């Protein structure tokens, strides 16, 4: 199997259908869709099952723990993470990823995204650092190995800590300035909105790192 797409979800019945639809509409079909329902009390599980996802339920209140559960279940050679309120921009995203990965024997391929309230997000910031968001990356599962996300949610987020853990392993990284993913930043009710972050703060981070 080529890809495992892991979607962590906590009471996402209002938004997850768009994310799952963008996955099911892909022209490339050699993948498994994994939705991890973390402490869900709404219809998220029912919706996920209607899109033929493999659904796992945990009670952790942690997107890091949900992603870890997805990693534990994944069978694909490559891992993609998709947040429940985001989506893939093109129906051929997986097809062109499948053709692109492996050219440079990389462990992770970083691609561009469209960042709501920010704009076009290239693979690197103006300061030359790769932004640590995990969803704009295609990960070789064997290179992840036993590395997992911390059960942590804070200003830096578990994405940055997972990225640090992976880069400290000396992984091989390649980059592709092709936008494939829409990051629905600051959606009302989302984690980023609840934590009080805003577009100005994020733009400052992007420009100064």
Topology:
Layout: E1 3-9, H1 16-24, E2 31-38, H2 44-50, E3 54-58, H3 63-73, E4 78-81, E5 87-88, H4 93-100, E6 108-115, E7 119-121, E8 137-140, H5 141-144, H6 157-167, E9 173-183, H7 191-194, H8 199-208
Parallel strand pairs: 1-2, 1-4, 2-3, 6-9
Antiparallel strand pairs: 4-8, 5-9, 6-7, 6-8
Overall strand count: 9
Beta content: 15-25%
Measured between the Cα atoms of the first and last residue, the distance is 36 Å
Total number of helical segments?
A: 8
Please give the share of residues in helix.
Answer: 25-40%
The largest sheet is: 9 strands, mixed
> Could you name the ranges where pLDDT drops below 50 across 5 or more consecutive residues?
192-199
Q: Give the structural class.
A: alpha/beta
Radius of gyration: 16 Å
- Secondary-structure element sequence? EHEHEHEEHEEEHHEHH
Looking at the structure, what is the overall shape? globular
What this model shows, in words?
The chain is an alpha/beta fold and 209 residues long. It contains 8 helices and 9 strands. Strands 1, 2, 3, 4, 5, 6, 7, 8 and 9 form a 9-stranded mixed beta sheet that branches. It is globular and about 40 Å long. Mean pLDDT is 89; it is low at 192-199.
Summarize the structure.
31% of the residues lie in helices and 25% in strands. With 209 residues, the protein is an alpha/beta fold. The longest helix is centred in the N-terminal third of the chain and has 11 residues, at 63-73.
